[in-house]
Design a protein that fits this description.
Blueprint: H1 3-8, H2 29-59, H3 74-86, H4 92-99, H5 102-111, H6 121-130, H7 134-149, H8 153-156, E1 161-164, E2 173-176
Antiparallel strand pairs: 1-2
Length: 179
């Protein structure tokens, strides 16, 4: 059914975003590397602005684990879950292999000095099974409401898009803002 026929039937469909069918705009490897570097820096700027407030809200969620058995703080567990989402890890096994290495740990310790070891993915899974995950959604929505109210989204935009990182195939891409 074509787009025109769908509209004739009175249905409303969200707009779609299609990638252009063209070759790369880069002429040299250095040019491509420079663009990737700039995009990565923009993404990190967004994370630096958003993470502290979000982690503060997430730290207020009650921890259902036994205090005597806790090896990783709730904040560290939430960071691990956020990174799993940001890096778009397809499975828990791949997450364990990719995100528990010493190189990533070293880089994360520069930002989060309290991080001594990366948790196992099963540990995060058990935590999420026991806790009220709706509280994570509430904290996220509160953060978005605050950003919209304070009009901070405009400061985070890069070429009219909100940068969103993806590590898959070493590509970084921007997600267009909705609306």
């Amino acid at each position: 059914m074509s787009g025109k026929n769908k509209k004739d039937k009175g249905r409303q469909y969200p707009p779609t975003f299609t990638l252009p069918n063209r070759k790369s705009k880069y002429k040299t490897e250095d040019e491509e590397q420079e663009d990737i570097q700039q995009r990565t820096e923009k993404i990190l700027d967004v994370y630096r602005q958003l993470l502290p407030g979000l982690l503060h809200k997430l730290a207020r969620i009650p921890d259902p684990r036994s205090p005597k058995k806790v090896k990783h703080q709730m904040t560290i567990m939430m960071i691990y879950g956020i990174l799993m989402f940001v890096f778009q890890m397809p499975s828990r096994r791949e997450t364990n292999q990719e995100m528990t290495g010493p190189r990533l740990l070293k880089h994360l310790q520069a930002v989060f000095p309290e991080l001594t070891d990366m948790p196992h993915q099963d540990t995060l899974c058990r935590l999420l099974e026991k806790m009220d995950v709706d509280q994570i959604e509430i904290a996220y929505i509160d953060m978005l409401r605050h950003l919209i109210y304070k009009k901070k989204f405009k400061n985070l935009l890069h070429q009219k898009t909100l940068p969103c990182g993806s590590r898959r195939n070493t590509k970084i891409r921007d997600e267009p803002m909705l609306g």
